[in-house]
Amino acid sequence: MMKSYICPFFIILLSLHSINFSASDTLYIKEAGNTIDLYNHISILEDPQLTLDIDSILDLKDKYTFYINNDSKLNFKYSTSRFWLRIVIKNETKESINYILEISNPDLDYISFYEVQNNRMIRTVHTGELVDVNLREIYHRNFLFNVFTEPGESYTYYIALNNNGHPFYIPIELKKKTFFEKYDNKSELFNGLIYGLFVFIIMFNIYLYRSTKDKISLYYSLAIIFAVIYFLHYEGYFYFFNPPIFVEKIKFINPCLYILFLISFIQIFISYNNSLSTLKKFLNLLKVVALIAPLFYILNYPLSLVADIGVPLLILTNFFNHFTGNSVPFSNQLPALVIRNRTIFHRDPHQSLSLHHAYPKHVCIDNMFGISMM
Fold first, then answer.
1. What is the overall mean pLDDT for the chain?
2. Is-contact 79 168, C-beta < 8 A?
3. What's the CA gap between 39 and 226, in Å, rounded?
4. C-beta atoms surrounding 231 within 10 Å
């Protein structure tokens, strides 16, 4: 009789042990791989009132309870709270490890990084989209932090993040420093080639305009210019310029301008067909919507969603253009093909899915813009 009770008892104990182990926020590094997924080793604390600081969290550990992240991503949607992440890393290898902790969303407004050992502060880094780029620990378009540990050592890392009610996704990963540098060089080279292609197309269309005085080439080149500026913003390159608050605000102007010039580009085709005069009036109205709607990005959710109205309307308009037989020449479709596919091909193979989750709105707009340009 006793044996029949003992067996289930041990099964329950083993189950509880496995649950605690899988839900632990401690990352035990037993082999130094190139990349390490952190999502299952992160604990989270929400601070809705934005009143907590690192000292209060360290001094009053029993008062503030972190919960284990059980999701395969970190997405706080449109929250205005400050979120605290806690990651404990222990080096169980026989060698020192040198990693880069990367947060690959350049649009996060405020980030504070704290390295703690034995409840003693070792290092502090304050950065973010609205913070001077020169204060970053590593000068890069993404947010990078050094993680170095000797064999047997254990460190606790706290990361405080706030995005002021804007889309709040945190793609985070640990990468071996040598691997990161190798991959990052390839990534920057790829970006250089893509943007170089755009510059060539822009210059070519400007040359056509100067030669033929055809406004089609002028409007098309201007639309591509502001599309490129949009990409430079959302990929983090524009944050190398100061002041960051000014750079952050002007990014709302670029969608207005590229939609405006793209509509003007379409209107020239429509002007060749007198039967489409009604559609031309509709496009004039759409210009007003295109100029006003993106300005709603400045507001918090849900009003910020109004900003997405302009692009779908633009696509609908260009579909009218296709159906009426006013197709864009294939030579002008090349930038659209690049825009539609750069979010597919330009991916870290270890983050191919997570980056799609990282920028759901951006990926959607990229593809919509590419379709509209065709």
1. 78
2. yes
3. 35
4. 22
Q: Are 369 and 339 in contact (CB under 8 A)?
A: yes
| Architecture of the domain spanning 24-178 | Sandwich (2.60)
List, for residues 21-79, the tens digit of each pLDDT value.
Answer: 344 678 999 988 899 999 999 999 999 999 999 999 998 888 889 999 989 899 998 89
| Closest among 243, 277, 261 to 372, alpha carbons compared | 261
Write down the pLDDT at residue 364. 45
- Cα–Cα distances (Å) from 291 to 272, 295, 314, in that order, read 25, 8, 12
For residue 192, which phi and psi values (nearest 5 degrees)? -60, -40
Question: For the chain, which residues make up each domain, given as ranges?
Answer: 24-178, 181-373
Residues 116/58, Cβ–Cβ less than 8 Å: yes
Residue given tokens 């704290």 in the structure block: 114
pLDDT at residue 81 tops 60: yes
Give burial (CB, 10 Å; 0-12/13-18/19+) of 284. exposed
Q: Do the beta carbons of residue 374 and residue 328 sit within 8 Å?
A: yes
Q: What pLDDT does residue 346 have?
A: 40
pLDDT given at position 63: 87
Q: Do residues 240 and 106 lie in contact, with contact meaning Cβ atoms separated by under 8 Å? A: no
Which helix (H) or strand (E) segment is 114 a member of?
strand 110-117
| DSSP of 284-317 | HHHHHHHHHGGGGGGSPTTGGGGGGSHHHHHHHH
Six token digits for residue 206? 């400007």
Structure tokens at 55: 């000292």
Closest CA to 220 of 128, 328, 366, 130: 328
Task: Quick: pLDDT tens for 292-329.
Answer: 877 777 776 777 767 666 556 556 655 655 555 555 55
pLDDT tens digit string along 173-224? 999 999 999 999 999 999 999 899 999 999 999 999 999 998 889 998 998 8
